[in-house]
Amino acid sequence: MNWRKSLACALWLAGIVMLSAAAQAQRVITDAAGRRVTIPSIVTRVADPWPANNAMVLMLGGADKLVATSDQARRQPWLRKLYPRIALVPAAFDAAGEVNIETLIGARPDVVLMAYGGALPKWAEAVDSYHVPIILMPNSSLEGLKVTARITGEVLGASESRAAEEYIRYFDDNIHKVLRVTSKLPDSARPKVLHTASGGILTVDGRQSVIDDWINIAGGVNAADVAGLGRPVTMEQVAAWNPDVIIVGTAPNQQSRQAILADPRWRQIKAVRDGKVFVNPSGAYLWDRHSAEAALQVLWAAKLLHPSQFTDLDVNQETRLFYARFFHHQLTDSELTSIMNATAP
Predict the structure, then answer these.
(1) I want to staple 139 with a disulfide (CB 3.0 to 4.6 A). Which of 54, 115, 211, 289 is the partner?
(2) Tens digits of residue pLDDT in 10-39
(3) What structural domains and CATH numbers belong to the chain?
């Protein structure tokens, strides 16, 4: 019996050594800034201050690896509905993007996933001193969104990486489906679209942005003659642009839509006169942003702007199929209504 015990002990020790080696193994990821970042071979603990990307992590199947998040992600109503545990994940990051370094390091993340705005966050040096790698990902275009999905999946692991590739194929299919129609539209058939941002009804999303991308794909033209997201404008500027369609992306969306309709200054705007002021859907994150649900946004916007060109497109059915396929959640009728009207579940 002694030799059997010795063999079992040897096998057990070998297993421990293999597990220890796997835990210490590393790999290299190239992020959006072109940095070659060394991360653990197997990532099990992730910090993600980017609210939109928390929903991406959930969609890819890696949400149980989240050990630190942001206040905004924990408050996102539909993210809490789809993944209740998010309310219990420590919020190491506040709405201003500041970090509580003690909370972050106390969560013992293997890696931090971070939106890249052209520079490292100011807290990066402090995090680096604890030898926690930061992966930067693009956040300013729909093409960048696909890169973000791919990098996020690559960081999280093999199954999440496969889910990312499946999502990217779906996203590309939707874009091509829309462009087959809208790419043939003359300029005269493209409505001017004004999209409001989270700062209020006189804060808009301009050119050179993810908003501009899906407006153009959907067969519109961005009415806002400014660059970037969340740009404050005057009522005089809005009147000069005179948009054909207004899409309200200002939270709370329904109240912001009513604020536009009730304000006498807006009644001169063509979109208001024609009854074309719409609320943008919102789910696990805001559809109109750099979020997983941007794959639905291009369909919704195309149907909204050119209903006669997309008579065979059932956005409600596509939404049901998307949530079932990617979030593994069967939407009820009331839940679907909530998402399409940007209300809490």
Answers:
(1) 115
(2) 455 545 544 544 456 999 999 999 999 999
(3) 26-167 (3.40.50.1980), 185-340 (3.40.50.1980)
